[in-house]
Amino acid sequence: MRRIPRSVFRWTAFAVVAALIVITVVLVTRPSSTGQQVRTQEKVLTLVDGPAGKRAPVAIDTTLYLPEKTPAPAVMIAHGFGGSKRSVDADAREFAAQGFVVLAWSARGFGRSGGTIELNSPDYEVEDAKQLVSWLAKRPEVRLDGPGDPRVGVTGGSYGGALALMLAGADKRVDALAPVITYNDLSQALLPNTGSTGAMPAGTPAAGPFGADGVFKRAWAGIFFASGMGGGGDAGSSGPEAPEPGTVSGSSDAAAGGDAAAPAPAPSTGGDTAGGDQGGDAPPAGATGGPCGRFGLDVCKAYAEVATTGVPSAETVALLKSVSPVSVTSKITQPTLLVQGEQDTLFGLDQADANARQIAAAGGSVKVIWYAGGHDGGRPGPQLREEMRNWLAYQLDKRGTDPGTGFEYAVQGALRAQGAPSVRVVRAPAYPGLTGAPVQRQAMAMSGAAQTVINPPGANPGSVSSLPGLSSVLAGAGGRLSGRTSIDLPGQSAIFSGPTLDEQLLIAGSATARLDVSAMPGLPPSKTGAVLFAKLYDVGPDGTRILPGSAVSPVRVPPLPVNGDSVKVTVALPGIVRPVESGHYLSLVVTTTDQSYATPLEPAAYRIALADDTIAVPVVPGTNVGGPAPVGPVIGIIVVLGIGVLLVLAVALRRRRSGRPDPELTDVPLVIDGLTKRYPGGLVAVDDLSFRVDRGQVLGLLGPNGAGKTTTLRMLMGLIHPTGGTIKVFGQEIRPGAPVLSRIGSFVEGAGFLPHLSGADNLRLYWAATGRPAERAHVHEALEIAGLGKAVNRKVRTYSQGMRQRLAIAQAMLGLPDLLVLDEPTNGLDPPQIHQMRSVLRAYAATGRTVLVSSHLLAEVEQTCDHVVVMHRGRLVAAGPVDEIVSGGGEATFRVDRPDVAADVLRGISGVTGVAVDGSAVHAELDGTPRSVAIGVLVSAGVAVEQAGPRRRLEDVFLQLVGEDS
Fold first, then answer.
1. Is there a single domain that holds both residue 412 and residue 516?
2. What is the mean pLDDT of residues 18-44?
3. Which residue segment(s) compose the domain that 731 sits in?
4. Residue 258 domain-assigned?
5. How far apart (Å, rounded) are the C-alpha atoms in residues 77 and 156?
6. 72, β-bridge pairs
7. SS3 210
8. Of 856, 884, 912, which closes a domain?
9. Cα–Cα distance for residue pair 72/64, rounded to 1 Å
10. What is the DSSP string of 766-816?
11. Which H/E stretch holds residue 6?
C-alpha cells in the first residue's frame, strides 16, 4: 500500500487547527443582540389610582432602559406574580441592546410600588399600564405614531403576560404584544373543568371545554397567595434605590394625567431578592394588614372563600373573569405572538389555545409557539427570546423579515445532551383551526372493562400527578425525573390501555376521551357531582410510565342518577407534546383523587367505563427546523470534535511510525528504554527504566513492594500507557492492540477463569477468543505443563489456589509464545510444584524463547533465572547475569578436604585477603583474582576442591542494593 507522506499529516493537522480558530472567531464575534451600550434611568412615578370616584395617587417604581440610538420604538415588560421590575432586568437589557426603549416597572403591591394587588384589574393594574403608555408618549427617546401615541409593544410572562393582553384590549395605542406562559381565564386556570356532556370545542389542537363548576387547583393557588403576601418586596437595603454604576439617576416624574403632580417617595425599605421574586419588606402604602397581606380586599375574600369551601360563588367566578384576558380578547386586533410552555401544570396549552381562538375571531393576526418549558420547566431560552425580539422588531419597526402567523412546537426526544433531553422544533404554516383547516385527529383504540373506583373518606390518601413548586426542579434535573413522579393509588384508579405502536406517534395538543360514569348503589351520590382526574401515560416496553408534562385533567361530572343510570362525559385530556415511540403504548388512567386539587371529602364509589373504544389524538404535521443551538455548546462541540480529529491524526501517525519495526532489534525479545509512568498527584511509579532481554534468557525482575514491577509488566502488555520512554518487542513498539502482542504470553492481571467450565475447556475457550487457528494452540503441551492430571476435566470452581495458578501459567504458554511474562508464578504452589516450575521455565528458554519472571522469592529467582533486573522506587539499581551480580563483591567459598592447608595456600596468593576457615569451607576475599586461578593453586598444592562459588547469596546482594528496611 502506498505510504502517506508525513507532511500530509502535518498539513492536515494544521488545517484542522486553522479551521477551528476561524469557526470559533466567527461564532464568538458574530453580531450580538447584546452588543449595544444600555443606559438606565430609575424613576418613581405618581399615577392616578382606582376607578372614577375613588382616585388617589399611587407610587409606581420604574426603570427606563435606553439604547444607543433614539428615538426608537418602546417595549413595556411586565413581571410575573411575586416579582418586581428587577425580575425582568435581563430581558429588558436584551431588548434595549437590540435598539428598543424599554420600560420595566414593579406592579402595584410588588417591589417598591404602592397600592394593593388587584390581579390585573382594569381599574387598577391595567389603568396603571395605560398611564405608563401616556408617560412614554412624552419621552423624547420614544418614537411616536401621533400626538400622545407612542410606537409601543408589550410583553411579559405569566401574570405579566396577562397584563400585556389586558392592556392591548384596553388601549389601542399598543401596536403589538407577545405574552408568555399566561392564562386566558383565571376562573378556568385555577378552577378547571375539562369535561363536557355536550359538544367539545373543535378545530384547534389544545381546545378545552372550559366547563362550569371547576375543581379548585389548591396547591398552585396557595403558592400564588403566599407569594403575594410579601408582594415581591425589595428586601436587602434601606432607603430609595441607588442608581447602578453607569446609569442615569432620575427624579420622580409626574404621571401623564397630572403634569403638576408631586414626586412620590419610595418606601423606606427595599431591595430586590436575587431572583426579583418574593421579598420581605413592609407593605407599600395602601396595603392592608392581617391575613390579606398586600392583596386587595375583594381578591382576598374570593381566595378565602374558595380555599375553605373548594367551590367558588358566582361573585368569585365573575371577579376572576373580569381580571382575566377573556374579558378583552374580543377587542384585541393587534399582531399577537403567544408563547406557551409544554411543561406547565399552572397555565396549560388550553389557555393559550383559547387566547388564540378569541383574538383570531376578533380579527387579530396570531402566531403561536409552544416551547419545552413553562412554570414547571423554565423560561424561554436564548434562541426563543431572540425570536420574540425579532418578532417585535418587525411589528414595531419593520426590521428583518415578516415572521408570519405560523405555529411552532418543541419536541423533546429520548437522546440527551449534557444531561438534558434533546429538543427539536416542528414548524407548521399556521395554528390549525384558527382560519384554515381544523387540526387532524387520529383515532387510537383503547380497551379495558368497566371498573369500580372509590373516593376514600376525606379524599386521603390521594394520588399524585405533579408537585407544584418542585416540578421545575425535577424537570431541571436533566429532565430525568420529569413526568415520573405520578402515583395512582389502587382502588382509586381505572386503567385503560391501547395497543403497542408499530411506529412513532407524535401527539401535539389535547386528546379527547369519552367516559361512561355511574354511581354505585349503597352510597349517596355527591350533591356537587363526581370529581375525577384523567391522565394519559406513555408506557414503555419495560412498563415504565411517563406522564407528559405531569399534567392531569380535572372533571366534575354532573350529579349522577340514583337508579344506577350512567352519564356520558367527553374529557379533554391535558395538552401535551409527546413523541410516543414504537414499542410503547398509551394508557388512560382515571382517578378519584389528586393531591394538588380540592376534592370532595365524602366517601363515594363510581363505575367507570369507556363510552367509545377510541381516543382522538391531535396530530400537527410540520417541518423539522432543529432546536436551540447556543453559541457556547456549539463552540464546545466544535472544539471537542476538532480535538478528536487531531487525536485521530496523532494516533494514526504514531501507529504508522510504531508499526515499522526497528531493523536492529527484530531478533531481540525485549528492549525497554527510558520507561516512565507518572500518576496524578506526583506519584512516579516507574522512573527512567532501561534494560534489555535477549533470546534464551530467563530474566528475573526483582524489587520490594512498590518498586514498580507490576506497573512495568502492565505497560509491557499494553494495559496502561507509559508517560515516557518506549517498550519494543522484537523491534516493534508496544501500544494497545499492537500485532506483536500476539508473540507474548502473559500471566499478569490474574486469569479470570469461568468457574462452571473445566480447566481444559477454559484453555480452549481462551484460545478461541484470540481468533487464531486451534492447531497453533498447543493445548496438550500446556496441559502437561500445568500438571493437573485428570483434574483438567473438572470444573474450575473446584480448584484450589495452587491449581488455578498452574492453569493460569499453562494459559500463558498457549501457542508457545516467543516471550513469556509471568508475575509471581509460584504463588500458591507447594515445593514440588515450584521445583517442577523451575525446570519447565528453564526448558522453555532452552528452546530459544525468552522468559521474564517477576517474583519476591529470591531463592527461587537465583535458582531459576540466569539474568536479573533489580528495581527500587521505580528506578533500575542493578542488572546483569545472576553469577556476576552475586559475585560482584569478590568473596568466594571453597569446600575442600584439608581446610587448614587450603587456608595457608590461599593466604600465599598475592591480593587475597580475609581468609577464614568454617568447618570444611574456606572463605576468602579474592579481590580480582579469578576463582579459577585460586582453584588451580589449591589443586597444585594437593588440596581436593569439592565445590567453589560465591560466598554471597542473591538475597544478600538484594538487601545491600535496596536496604533491609525495604
1. no
2. 60
3. 670-884
4. yes
5. 5
6. 142
7. coil
8. 884
9. 13
10. HHHHHT--GGGS-HHHHHHHHT-GGGGGSBGGG--HHHHHHHHHHHHTTT-
11. helix 6-28
Ordered strands of the 724-729 beta sheet: 684-693, 670-678, 724-729, 732-733
Specify whether 354 is located in the same domain as 447: no
Examine the domain organization and report whether 495 and 360 are in the same domain.
Answer: no
The answer to whether the predicted template modeling score (pTM) of the entire model surpasses 0.90 is no
Q: How confident is the model at residue 53 (pLDDT cuts 50, 70, 90)?
A: low
What is the pLDDT, as a whole number, of residue 260? Answer: 31
How many Cα atoms sit within 13 Å of 791 on the Cβ side?
Answer: 15
pLDDT at 949 over 80: no
How far is residue 902 from each of residues 266, 270, 887, 911, measured CA to CA in Å? 116, 108, 21, 16
Q: Is residue 15 part of a domain?
A: no
**CA gap 149, 695 in Å, rounded:** 98
Give yes or no for a cis peptide into 71 (omega within 30° of 0): yes
Between 825 and 42, whose confidence is greater? Answer: 42
10: CB partners within 8 A, 6+ apart:
none
Predicted confidence (pLDDT) per residue in 520-552, tens digit: 776 655 566 789 999 999 999 888 899 998 899
- C-alpha cell of 386? 431572540
Distances (CA, A) of 648 to 13, 16, 277, 655, 723: 10, 12, 50, 10, 19
The residue among 831, 863, 884 that closes a domain is 884
178: its cell numbers? 407577545
- CA-nearest of 859, 822, 828, 829 to 844 is 822
First to last CA, the chain: 54
Q: Alpha carbon of 876 to those of 692, 850, 871: distances in Å?
A: 12, 21, 5
* Span 301-341, pLDDT tens digits: 999 899 888 889 999 999 999 999 999 999 999 999 999 99
336 and 475 together in one domain: no
Determine the Cα–Cα distance for residues 275 and 283; give it in Å rounded to an integer: 19
The number of angstroms, rounded, from the C-alpha of 478 to the middle of its chain's C-alpha atoms is: 5
| Residue 118, SS3 per DSSP | coil
Distance CA 16, CA 22 (A): 10
Q: CATH number for the domain including 535?
A: 2.60.120.260
Inter-residue contact 238 to 90 (CB < 8 Å): no
φ, ψ of residue 10 in degrees (nearest 5): -65, -45
Q: What is the tally of structural domains in the chain?
A: 4
- Whichever domain contains 692, its CATH number is 3.40.50.300
User: Which amino acid would we find at residue 643?
Assistant: I
CA–CA separation, 62 vs 75, rounded Å? 13
Task: Tell whether 13 is covered by a domain.
Answer: no
Q: What is the mean pLDDT of the chain?
A: 81
Q: Which of 870, 816, 886 is nearest to 846 (CA)?
A: 816
The amino acid at 461: P
The predicted structure's pLDDT at residue 694: 92
pLDDT band (50, 70, 90) for residue 150: very high
Instruction: Report which residue type is found at 492.
Output: Q
Helix axes 801-812, 759-770, angle to 10 degrees: 30
Query: What is the side-by-side order of every strand in the sheet holding 945-950?
Result: 913-918, 921-925, 891-896, 945-950
Burial degree of 280 (CB within 10 A; 0-12, 13-18, 19+): middle
Q: How far apart are CA 857 and CA 702, in angstroms?
A: 9
Q: What is the mean pLDDT of residues 75-103?
A: 95
Query: Can you give the CATH number for the domain in which 938 is found?
Result: 3.30.70.100
Q: ω before 284 within 30° of 0 (cis)? A: no
pLDDT (mean) for 834-853: 84
173-182, 682-691, 701-710: which range is least confident on average?
701-710
Contacts of residue 824, Cβ cutoff 8 Å, sequence gap at least 6: 854, 855, 856
